[in-house]
Amino acid sequence: MDRYRVIFAGAVITAVFAFFVLAWIPQRQLSAVVPLDPLQPYSAEQAAGRRVYIALGCLYCHSQQVRDPGFGTDQKRGWGRPSYPEDYRFDEPHLLGTMRTGPDLINIAVRQPSRAWHYAHLYQPRAMVPGSLMPSFPFLFELKERADLADDVVALPPGTAPAGRVVVASPDARRLVDYLLSLNRNYARADARNMGPGH
Asked: Is the pTM here over 0.90, yes or no?
């Protein structure tokens, strides 16, 4: 019987130790991270677009982290400087991702600042990037005979637009593009981490 108590006590001690080392200590360290000045909380529209991004499963094919040059060629690809904890201060849950079926998106607003490009890419990716594996999202758009004054009309390359129809961005498409255009973590950063007091 004493043997089982020792095993149980060992398991409890191991679990508590693992919790402190793997969860509590990192949480304390990261809770002191202060965002850099250019980084702002998401607006209501950007936050809504982030939820659309999650719902569509974009995070399964796109990462949001630029690796240090010692770990890969991300910077040579033009994806920006390496990512740091401060870059994710307002991201909950974090969407770092592990798969790169598509390019990293943490700085997509720097590489593709055009709202029109994002609309066309979401409607028909291969019209903008030949050979793209990305699925199209036509359900994020409406087909109309004539656009209203307030509509965001999608400009598509010749031969990709439906004949006699105008493609118009839905509210979800506008929100998603608002979120994508907020992804700019390429601002200057000091070498030392911008941590709070005691770090």
From this structure: no
